[in-house]
Task: inverse folding
């Protein structure tokens, strides 16, 4: 697999306090979730599909080396790692699909991820999409994650909109991708990035956050307090 991985510096892209990354030009990774009227995707499937979309973008040949998106990806990863999820339906979704990007499909969810854009330079057809109020439910009970499947554990004490939670799941997947050994990353990629997103048991949360696994601490731009621990990425190869 062609690999141009950027390893996160000690100045973490997710830390709440200012650092060197804040001095760099700021970019954002746009994700658009398809939410048709009357047939919204299940919340957990949307979170999992968003996380896979981030991994697909990171590993795509256009995102590394001399690929057409590689410069934007490097600029984005050199600054704060921002992801913004917006929603679309009907003609909005068709316009989004016409822009360069990758659509990833789950059981009920469709998420399109786009190469990074300047924080204040969104394409018009994405800028006009709604960002707030994206809320979804799980109509059926969510089963336990299968043993051995990489799992993104969400903080059970935080309430987040579906859009915010999708972005956080993407952060967790990205941190796991950065920290995996090359062989494990290649195997995960070859398998199609199987993963699960689950809310952690409150009793297990302290051990998860203190166990040395990749952990997302939100910068606090939206919805939750700066420094909040949102996701722990539990990949078997990182234990």
Result:
């Amino acid at each position: 697999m062609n690999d141009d991985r950027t390893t996160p510096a000690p100045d973490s892209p997710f830390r709440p306090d200012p650092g060197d990354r804040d001095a760099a030009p700021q970019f954002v990774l746009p994700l658009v979730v398809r939410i048709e009227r009357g047939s919204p995707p299940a919340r957990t499937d949307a979170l999992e599909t968003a996380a896979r979309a981030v991994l697909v973008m990171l590993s795509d040949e256009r995102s590394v080396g001399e690929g057409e998106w590689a410069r934007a990806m490097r600029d984005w990863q050199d600054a704060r790692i921002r992801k913004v999820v917006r929603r679309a339906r009907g003609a909005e979704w068709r316009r989004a699909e016409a822009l360069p990007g990758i659509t990833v499909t789950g059981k009920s969810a469709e998420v399109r991820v786009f190469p990074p854009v300047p924080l204040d330079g969104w394409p018009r057809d994405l800028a006009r999409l709604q960002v707030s109020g994206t809320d979804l439910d799980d109509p059926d009970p969510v089963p336990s994650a299968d043993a051995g499947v990489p799992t993104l554990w969400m903080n059970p004490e935080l309430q987040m909109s579906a859009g915010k939670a999708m972005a956080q799941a993407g952060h967790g997947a990205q941190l796991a991708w950065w920290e995996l050994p090359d062989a494990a990353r290649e195997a995960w990629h070859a398998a199609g990035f199987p993963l699960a997103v689950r809310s952690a048991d409150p009793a297990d949360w302290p051990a998860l956050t203190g166990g040395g696994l990749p952990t997302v601490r939100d910068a606090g731009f939206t919805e939750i307090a700066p420094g909040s621990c949102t996701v722990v990425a539990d990949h078997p190869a990182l234990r």
